[in-house]
Design a protein that fits this description.
This protein has 489 residues and is an alpha/beta fold. The protein has 19 helices and 15 strands. The chain has a 7-stranded mixed beta sheet, with helices on both faces. Strands 8-11-12-13-14-15 form a 6-stranded parallel beta sheet. The protein has a two-stranded antiparallel ribbon with strand order 9-10.
Length: 489
């Protein structure tokens, strides 16, 4: 038995988030916030381990046993998913089971961090048997907690970014500062992660569908300067829009480590928005090109942040996929959630991206507050017209920490009665109702839209031309996975 100071846990929930699709189609991504916290704490002299229960497909019981074998001083369960906005809240179901299994056998201290606990710290502390909530980024809070537990050099009311109980009352300390210079963060603690378990999403590897590993993801920046009403990412950044950049050299050095030590070829740039500062993006691209890395990269961009020059440079670097958040074809619907992009640019930019040899992942949301059946059909028809190589069709959710959540609470709108009701592809999924439609109507439209989009001859012909018959067969098999829904009769 080891005595470990800190064990970080990525709770397993793939089946709750993706249903049956989680077994074969969904990616399995490294838990970056576990890895970042681990490396930050380890460099300061503490012993650290990571248990990725999601990647290792461990049950809550198995995860608890694995944790307690190491007799930790502190357990940090990081409630953060691969798609941070969409995958944090659904993890609370398995997180509760994990906490209960730990507490049955031990009185070891547990702290929750991540988007959901940061968005609802007081409520989470009331509902769960955790000892603490670290709200915000968590780096300094976890460090100070360890100091308090290990050598009593701090008192609990001095720990920034902490919610806790004292004499039966819930107490909240002042927020912890964000790390100003993110270059002071070491590389992710890749050596503590089961690197052989990670795989890219199916679409990311349409060019080589049978080889989706090895795979990794990396941040080149933290935060987002925009404030879309449906997104809750700012919960971990003290509700402050903004962006902090890592140095280009440090980013490419970490990519180099992944390529040389772990043989990574498939890579996700996990930034909320990578293609923003064009000079910086060009510098990162030039450094990757200079080193001769052969990568298959995907990243996020915006319709209003790209041009032909940057697209050519990205393709040269190995960026084969760009994800654009188009959300809705209807300008009024988009403006209702503070998503401002120029309507006339959408089709031009998608064409420009394809002309540069980059495949497009289009993100669309059905059921935004101003949506009705006509505007959702308008969005679906735009998606069909754009004929992106892959699309994500989301149902609008009032994720805790988002503007839509606070509006829903204020207006008394019915929200899911279980946290896995916020997952996109689970049995319990219940979207937000719009001004005109029920959540059930939105969900039914979304599921039918998915089948309609991927069944089209125009789409399958395009896929066949670009990727071959094997990928066409893969798409057809994907459509055979029926998503079971409690709220669709």
């Amino acid at each position: 038995m080891e005595n470990i100071d800190l064990i970080l846990v990525n709770p397993g929930v793939r089946s709750a988030t993706y249903g049956k699709l989680g077994q074969s189609l969904a990616g399995i991504e490294p838990p970056l916030w576990c890895g970042l916290t681990a490396s930050f704490i380890r460099q300061l002299g503490f012993s650290v381990k990571i248990i990725d229960a999601d990647a290792e497909e461990l049950s809550p019981e198995e995860t608890a046993d694995r944790i307690l074998e190491n007799t930790p001083l502190l357990i940090n369960i990081v409630v953060m998913g691969t798609n941070p906005s969409a995958s944090s809240t659904p993890k609370m179901v398995v997180t509760r089971k994990l906490i209960e299994n730990i507490k049955k056998k031990s009185d070891v201290k547990i702290v929750l961090s991540g988007i959901h606990p940061s968005a609802l710290p007081e409520q989470t502390l009331k509902e769960e048997k955790t000892d603490y909530i670290a709200y915000g980024e968590g780096f300094y809070t976890i460090l100070q907690l360890l100091k308090m537990l290990k050598d009593k050099s701090l008192k609990i009311d001095e720990i920034e970014g902490l919610f806790y109980r004292k004499n039966g009352e819930i107490k909240a300390n002042k927020p912890a500062e964000l790390i100003k210079d993110v270059d002071m963060l070491p590389f992710v603690a890749w050596d503590l992660l089961p690197m052989e378990k990670y795989r890219a999403h199916n679409w990311h590897c349409f060019g080589d569908i049978e080889n989706r590993s090895p795979y990794a993801a990396i941040y080149t920046s933290f935060g987002c300067p925009y404030h879309c009403n449906y997104c809750n990412i700012h919960a971990v950044y003290n509700q402050k829009p903004g962006i902090r950049y890592r140095s280009c050299e440090k980013v490419v050095d970490e990519i180099g480590l992944l390529v040389e030590k772990y043989k990574i070829r498939h890579l996700k740039i996990a930034d909320e928005l990578f293609v923003l500062n064009k000079k910086r993006v060009e510098k990162i691209c030039d450094l990757i090109i200079e080193r001769g890395y052969k990568l298959n990269i995907w990243a996020y961009a915006r319709i209003d942040t790209v041009d032909e020059n940057i697209l050519r440079k990205l393709k040269q670097t190995g960026v084969n996929w760009l994800c654009y958040g188009i959300e809705s074809a209807n300008e009024q619907v988009r403006e209702g959630v503070s998503k401002k992009i120029q309507q006339d640019k959408i089709e031009n930019v998608i064409k420009m991206t394809k002309d540069a040899g980059i495949y497009v992942l289009g993100n669309f949301i059905f059921g935004l507050p101003d949506d009705n059946l006509e505007t959702m059909e308008e969005t679906l028809q735009m998606a069909e017209r754009l004929n992106c190589e892959y699309v994500n069709f989301y149902a609008a959710m009032a994720y805790p920490g988002s503007g839509l959540y606070y509006e829903a609470i204020k207006k008394g709108i019915t929200l899911p009665d279980r946290w896995d009701g916020y997952a996109q592809l689970s049995y319990e999924t219940l979207p937000l109702p719009t001004k005109y439609l029920t959540g059930e109507q939105v969900l039914k439209f979304r599921d039918e839209a998915f089948i309609r989009y991927y069944s089209r001859k125009e789409y399958l012909d395009m896929i066949n031309e670009k990727f071959g018959s094997k990928v066409v067969q893969h798409i057809k098999q994907m459509l055979e996975h029926k998503i079971e829904r409690k709220h669709i009769k």
